[in-house]
Design goal:
It is a single chain. The protein folds into 2 domains: 60 residues, no CATH class; 43 residues, no CATH class. Helices cover 78% and strands 0% of the residues. It has 6 helices and no strands. The radius of gyration is 19 Å and the shape is elongated. It starts with a helix and ends with a helix. The C terminus is likely disordered.
């Protein structure tokens, strides 16, 4: 992943989240586009690493969603209000059964 970090950082800093001066903006976009194969390979490597950790987490905490619901119950009692559980779980990226089956 490391070889693509400077490319991704340049894009993030100059074009992705904050528009920089025009020359830097277009330079960052061009750099990303001309090195797209390297960037794609790095992103694929990151995705494989992420899937590995999700799979490891599922094995270490098979009842993770249940524990998360209990934790959210506790937070709601302590601080009032409610959480949008489906949205919260999507952000926590709980692996779905389909994703788990895919990795087997």
């Amino acid at each position: 992943m490391e070889p693509a970090w400077p490319i991704l950082r340049q894009f993030r800093d100059s074009a992705g989240f904050h528009a920089d001066k025009p020359l830097r903006f277009f330079s960052a976009r061009r750099n990303l586009r001309t090195k797209i194969k390297q960037v794609e390979a790095s992103i694929f490597e990151f995705e494989k690493l992420f899937e590995f950790f999700l799979d490891a987490e599922a094995k270490e905490l098979p009842n993770f969603e249940e524990v998360l619901d209990s934790f959210l119950d506790e937070l709601e009692r302590a601080h009032g209000g409610t959480f949008r559980r489906a949205q919260f779980k999507a952000h926590v990226m709980i692996p779905t059964r389909a994703a788990s089956a895919r990795s087997e």
